[in-house]
Amino acid sequence: MAGEEVNPKAFPLADPALSKSILNLVQQASHYKQLRKGANEATKTLNRGLSEFIVMAADAEPLEILLHLPLLCEDKNVPYVFVRSKDALGRACGVSRPVIACSVTINEGSQLKQQIQSLQVSIEKLLI
């Protein structure tokens, strides 16, 4: 699994350590009802200005089904990042199916605020 080539269009790709913190936060966001799963839902949160950041799976097939998201993120100034595995992303989202994209949504009084902000910073560093 680890040696698999990742589609170069899946940029920026989180390294294993960052992926771990991202998936961890996604899991918590799911508990706090601050998570929308799936490319369509992620698109909606972006259009409505509700997204803190977007996580996408680099192994989505074909990757093109996701590639409108980075453009939209840039448009809306929302950080975005790829993790390697849609299966891992699905697990983090608390479902037994692969998830190719999800959006962590804004909630003003959220207990996750600090973690979300520090991850946004890490993700933005990847984009430079």
Brief account:
The protein has 128 residues and is of the alpha+beta class. The chain is 43% helix and 15% strand. The chain has helices at 16-31, 39-47, 68-76, 86-92, 113-126, and strands at 35-37, 51-57, 80-83, 101-105.
Protein described:
- The protein is α+β, with helices and mostly antiparallel strands and 128 residues long.
- The protein has one domain: Ribosomal protein L30/S12 (60s Ribosomal Protein L30, Chain: A), CATH 3.30.1330.
- Helices cover 43% and strands 15% of the residues.
- The protein is built from five helices and four strands.
- Strands 1-4-2-3 form a four-stranded mixed sheet, sandwiched between helices.
- The radius of gyration is 13 Å and the shape is globular.
- The mean pLDDT is 95.
Question: Tell me about the biggest sheet?
Answer: 4 strands, mixed
CATH superfamily: Ribosomal protein L30/S12
> What level of helicity do the residues show?
40-55%
Structural class: alpha+beta
Structural shape: globular
- CATH T-level topology: 60s Ribosomal Protein L30, Chain: A
What is the tally of beta strands?
Answer: 4
Count of helical stretches = 5
Q: Describe the oligomeric state of these chains in a short phrase.
A: single chain
Distance between the termini: 28 Å
Would you identify the regions where 5 or more consecutive residues have pLDDT less than 50?
Answer: none
**At CATH's second level, what is the architecture?**
2-Layer Sandwich
- Using only C-alpha atoms, the radius of gyration works out to 13 Å
Overall tally of domains: 1
